[in-house]
Design goal:
The chain contains 18 helices and 16 strands. By secondary structure, it is of the alpha/beta class. The chain folds into 2 domains: 59-200, Beta-Lactamase (2-Layer Sandwich), CATH 3.30.450; 208-481, Rossmann fold (3-Layer(aba) Sandwich), CATH 3.40.50.300. Bound molecules: zinc ion.
Length: 482
């Protein structure tokens, strides 16, 4: 066209184009063609939307579904981690982000496990920090399956299978080292319950001197670890730090006895991977229980064995036999107190004289939160404190003479008044007098009473001593043992 018609200047060209467009728009043909094109586009879009299959696979679908259905969760505790999690959720309200934030908050808070439990109209999310399970938030039930599905994908589990227990794991890299997340999924009446255990591979091993044992107790404990045979039984509620103590003890044995000592463990699950140990994991799916695995490992005749837990007759019998035939056995047992482990063994079918001759000692422990030493200060004991002490079994004159500490919070502790965790211990060492009592099947309270006469510092007293020393507050002491 440029060959036949050259506009004189820019405004002439503009006028020509304007006239041409006006002419085209006035034409009936152009109007109809434009209308048809628009209708076809809208029709095609509608058809495409109708036939789009909601696979649930791509992340985008999940984002849409959750953001439509996910009202803000209700937070049960107002701690900093929960508030952070809430803020993240409002910003990125979808299942993958929820799981990411939940796990990183749990790791930051030092949680040992995270529980996601479906209930009738809500899902309850809780975590365990320093041995205490606390509810973090409740979310609407619609949210539950999406979150469980995301966790299953991460742990390599079958997402469509919802009626069988499943176990899996996945690692998370953090600036402080890798954290291994062990996932256990269990069908319940309202849906699948998920428990995620957070195993820190880097900082799990703590030196025996760093556990918080008073020196005399630690020296006694070290002496026990030097014994050629017998059982050392740890007891206490879940999350009280028993496993940490067991690993510290094994590490101590390895350092002190040298490479000629063979050490084997049977665990469920293996919590810390240690090169100096031969570790075996119990596998119920293939019928490898603690008892069966223990017998298999014993055939290799290790000097020292750590048995994760004695929870059935077979394991109890085998462990006691092994403890009497040249093996040092470190293990845990569910019992209310150190004095209670003997009758617990007897309840599991162990002969009283075997229980009394195989057990070297029982140890009980609790984790406690230390007071911040920067802002710690003595506190006047008031009438209320006094009454609580007397209620807890301390006589009135002793209660009057004791003083305690508090920490109001400062910059160093982030205004919490707390700085880290330590443990308090009770160590019951077998003595000839106690051995006779166990053989005679004497009731647990009597064993406890005589153990104190024989020199044991009971857990309660150990906690009060830490409070008097200012390591912990009196409230904390009474909370864990009161
Ligand atoms: Zn402070």
């Amino acid at each position: 066209m440029y060959l036949f018609w050259r506009p004189a200047d820019l405004s002439a060209a503009w006028t020509a184009i304007h006239n041409l467009v006006s002419l085209a728009l006035a034409s009936r043909v152009v109007q109809v063609a434009a209308g048809l094109a628009l209708t076809a586009t809208i029709g095609a879009r509608l058809l495409e939307r109708g036939s789009r299959i909601p696979t649930g696979g791509p992340k985008v679908d999940l984002v849409e579904v959750v953001s439509e259905r996910m009202p803000a969760p209700v937070f049960a505790v107002s701690d900093v981690a929960a508030l952070d999690l809430g803020r993240h959720l409002r910003r990125r309200p979808n299942a993958p982000a929820f799981v990411d934030e939940l796990l990183s908050s749990a790791i930051a808070a030092g949680a040992s496990d995270v529980h996601i439990q479906p209930q009738d109209i809500h899902t309850r999310v809780a975590w365990r920090v320093r041995g205490e399970l606390s509810e973090l938030l409740t979310a609407p039930s619609a949210h539950h399956d999406l979150v469980v599905r995301r966790i299953k994908i991460l742990a390599g589990l079958t997402t469509y299978q919802t009626d069988l227990p499943q176990d899996g794991r996945f690692p998370i890299d953090t600036p402080k080292g890798a954290v291994d997340v062990r996932v256990s999924v269990l069908p319940t009446y309202h849906g699948e319950k998920v428990v995620m255990r957070l195993a820190r591979t880097g900082d799990g091993l703590i030196d025996l001197t760093q556990l918080g044992m008073p020196e005399s107790l630690r020296l006694d404990f070290e002496e026990l670890l030097a014994q050629p045979q017998g059982l050392v039984i740890l007891t206490g509620p879940t999350g009280c730090g028993k496993t940490t103590t067991l690993y510290s003890a094994l590490s101590y044995i390895n350092l002190n006895r040298g490479d000629t000592t063979s050490i084997a463990t049977i665990e469920d699950p293996i919590e810390i991977d240690l090169p100096f140990l031969s570790q075996t994991q119990v596998d119920h799916a293939v019928g490898l229980s603690f008892g069966q695995t223990l017998r298999a490992v014993l055939r290799q005749d290790p000097n020292v064995m750590m048995v994760g837990e004695i929870r059935d007759q077979e394991t109890a019998h085998t462990a006691v036999e092994a403890g009497l035939s040249g093996h040092l056995i470190l293990t845990t047992l569910h019992s209310d107190s150190t004095a209670g482990v003997f009758n617990r063994l007897i309840d599991m079918g162990v002969e009283p004289f075997l229980a009394s001759s195989s057990v070297l000692a029982a140890v009980s422990q609790r984790l406690v939160r230390r007071l911040c030493t920067e802002c710690r200060q003595p506190v006047e004991s008031d009438r209320k404190t006094m009454n609580r002490m007397i209620q807890a079994g301390i006589n009135a004159t002793a209660a009057e003479s004791l003083s305690f500490f508090t920490a109001p919070g400062c910059g160093a502790c982030g205004d919490t008044g707390l700085a880290g965790v330590t443990a308090i211990f009770e160590l019951l060492r077998m003595t000839p007098r106690l051995r006779d009592l166990v053989t005679d099947k004497v009731a647990t309270p009597k064993i406890a009473e005589i153990a104190v006469e024989e020199g044991m510092t009971p857990l309660f007293r150990a906690a009060i001593l830490e409070a008097v020393a200012g390591t912990i507050s009196l409230d904390e002491a009474l909370r864990v043992v009161g």
